Cytoplasmic protein (Thalassovita litoralis), 248 residues
Amino acid sequence: MAKPIMAKATAVWLIDNTTISFKQIADFVGLHELEIQGIADGDVAPGVKGFDPVANNQLDEGEIAKAEKNPLHKLKLKINPAAAGEEKRRGPRYTPLSKRQDRPNSILWLVKFHPELSDGQIAKLVGTTKPTIQSIRERTHWNIANMQPIDPVALGLCKQSELDAAVQKAAAKRAADGEAMSDDDRRKLLSTEQSLSMDAEPKIPTAIEGLETFSLKDDSDEDEKEVDFSDADSFFNLPGSDSGDEQP
């Protein structure tokens, strides 16, 4: 739902100039009712000058009159055709100057651990250009030797929910295209929350692969007759000795 600009200043004006209830004002400006109560008591936003929503073409006087007569009436924000689509972000995401040096590292992380993401998706996630992504994919970037893959969520370049949404979208596209995926690829296409909840699959190191079937036991030994050592005399007799040679 669209909200008026300068919410607290608008709330101050409505409190000072109307008899509308705190609940109605809170619903209109997008604040909590207790916060509106705090503004009225002077505990919240002290010194804030009221912003007239009627003079600034955000609210009709008729709406105020209806709200004052009916406590259940909800104020309706006037639609400004010139502001249509203003909330939609255009162009690449803005990245603060303090984090721009880490942006190539985040691109390297996405290229390495989520190769299914398109250049356009990566550009939207971290706010970069497709030529930069392509140079990192092809390892022709001027600083590629000094780069380290770093999670863009940890760097604050994007939200975890945004990364998960992009990964899920890539998964849906792969499924629609009918491409076969390995277990590792399928795990990458899961969200972080789903991936962390999965049990780790035991894997055998490549260096000892095949030793799981190795045995020191000779199969031919199974056919040999087992020697019974329950008799003490037979245990101490040497092979080839004759029982008739025993001393009297």
